[in-house]
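Progress report, Aim 2. The chain analyzed during this reporting quarter is listed below.
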Amino acid sequence: MSIEVEVEFADLRTDASNWQSASGQLKSLAQGAGSRDLPDSAFMMAGYSFAQIYRRYLTTVSKHLSEGAAQSEALSRLLGDAVQIYGEAEESIKEEVRALLAEIDGN
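Predicted structure tokens for the chain:
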């Protein structure tokens, strides 16, 4: 049983670009979350312990956003690599077909 796969290079490039863009947006959000803070006095009666919980929450959110940015960037690179690999394979097949046709024409 054989499976046919059609690959649209333009679609892969577009997807790679979209994931790269998403990575940039996630990085920006991570930086924003990581740089936010409130003074302890902003938590009034809840005080210092609640301020610490709030800061740990922001750190966790920033960490997850940064991880998402890294994963999005890696996916973008993988899609870009796939375009290159598929392109090289396609060119190789075309060269083999040309060589076979030249051999057939030569006989």
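The mean pLDDT is 92. The radius of gyration is 25 Å. These observations will guide the mutagenesis work planned for the next reporting period.
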